[in-house]
């Protein structure tokens, strides 16, 4: 038992050091350089090296106690910076997924609503072109022709760049996750929000591991966006920090879109493949692929209706 606890502690320490301390230490080093160099001499490496040499020759850096104190302080500040980045990343994740945007208040709701309307209009225009090309291709095949599929594929890509289904959220990433629920409702009459908690508990371990890994990748991608915000704050003292912030923000955006797409595909695939098994485990007669009848029955079985309100005495 002690060996198991020791191994768990070691892995936790490795994760803590990798995800919090190392990025935080880099941020601490850049922040120190930003404060020392400033806007006037942003690339004066010689002055910075001189400061480091002077500090290293001081009594605080030469004594064992001073070195230990400096190390502990540096690790603590680095960990705090890492926690701040994770907190900002969680906030960014909530914003980019925008699952509850209709509950936002004031200008945020107004901006989100306007953005949804604009995205929906763009998507509808591109979807009309895509479906017209599909119909033209089907008509050409019916006449024995071999239509060129390149324009249809290009129109499909243009439509998917807005959203893979009709937009309902202000961001592409939010719509990508929402599209899973839309497709399962349309194809199988299955309410994903109702069925998923029960399905998750019955999924095979390899499937759960893949979904968990994708979810963790999404968290790391949004945390990178949190670091971009922290580096942007350093532009108050050192303008090159803005370049780092832009690079990190662009990388975070690219990774977030990629990981959300993978996560959504895994959610949809897991539901289509294993919802039938969940139905059988709950006593619903079913054999073969998931059907709309089984999806509807599974949703009704797992959905809990709220109680009727008590009569009000007048």
Which secondary structure elements does this structure contain, and how are they paired or packed?
Elements: H1 2-37, H2 45-56, H3 59-62, H4 64-97, H5 106-142, H6 150-162, H7 172-188, H8 192-202, H9 205-233, H10 240-281, H11 292-302
Q: What coarse outline follows from CA principal-axis ratios? A: globular
Report the portion of residues in β strands: under 5%
Mean pLDDT over the residues:
83
Over the alpha carbons, how many angstroms does the gyration radius reach?
27 Å
Question: Number of helical segments?
Answer: 11
| Share of helix, binned | over 70%
Alpha-beta classification? mainly alpha
Tell how many strands the DSSP assignment holds: 0
Low-confidence stretches: 1-13
Largest beta-sheet characterization: none
Summarize the helix and strand pattern as letters: HHHHHHHHHHH
- Number of structural units classed as domains: 2
How far apart the termini lie comes to 64 Å
Quickly list its features.
disordered N terminus, globular, 314 residues, 2 domains, mainly alpha, 11 helices
What is this entry, summarized?
The protein is mostly helical and 314 residues long. Helix content is 78%, strand content 0%.
Give an overview in words.
This protein is mostly helical and 314 residues long. The protein has two domains: 2-98 and 171-302, no CATH class; 103-167. The protein has eleven helices and no strands. It has helices at residues 2-37, 45-56, 59-62, 64-97, 106-142, 150-162, 172-188, 192-202, 205-233, 240-281, 292-302.
């Amino acid at each position: 038992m002690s060996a198991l606890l020791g191994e768990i502690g070691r892995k936790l320490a490795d994760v803590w050091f990798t995800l919090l301390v190392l990025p935080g230490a880099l941020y601490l080093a850049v922040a120190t350089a930003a404060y020392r160099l400033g806007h006037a001499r942003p690339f004066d490496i010689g002055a910075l090296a001189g400061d480091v040499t002077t500090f290293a020759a001081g009594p605080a850096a030469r004594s064992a106690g001073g070195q230990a104190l400096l190390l502990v302080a540096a690790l603590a500040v680095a960990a705090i910076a890492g926690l701040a980045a994770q907190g900002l990343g969680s906030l960014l994740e909530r914003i980019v997924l925008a699952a509850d945007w209709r509950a936002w208040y004031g200008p945020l709701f107004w901006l989100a609503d306007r953005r949804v309307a604009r995205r929906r209009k763009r998507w509808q225009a591109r979807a009309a072109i895509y479906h017209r090309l599909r119909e033209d291709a089907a008509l050409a095949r019916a006449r024995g022709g071999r239509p060129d599929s390149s324009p249809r594929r290009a129109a499909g890509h243009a439509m998917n760049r807005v959203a893979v289904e009709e937009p309902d959220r202000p961001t592409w990433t939010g719509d990508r996750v929402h599209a899973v629920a839309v497709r399962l409702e349309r194809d199988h009459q299955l309410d994903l929000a109702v069925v998923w908690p029960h399905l998750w508990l019955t999924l095979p371990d390899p499937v759960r591991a893949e979904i968990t890994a994708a979810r963790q990748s999404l968290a790391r991608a949004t945390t990178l966006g949190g670091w971009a915000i922290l580096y942007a704050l350093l532009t108050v003292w050192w303008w090159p920090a803005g370049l780092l912030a832009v690079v990190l923000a662009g990388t975070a955006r690219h990774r977030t879109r990629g990981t959300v797409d993978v996560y959504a595909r895994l959610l949809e695939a897991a539901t289509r493949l294993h919802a039938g098994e969940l139905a059988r485990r709950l006593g619903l007669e079913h054999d073969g692929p998931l059907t709309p009848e089984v999806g509807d029955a599974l949703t009704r079985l797992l959905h809990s209706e709220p109680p009727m309100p008590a009569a009000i005495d007048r």
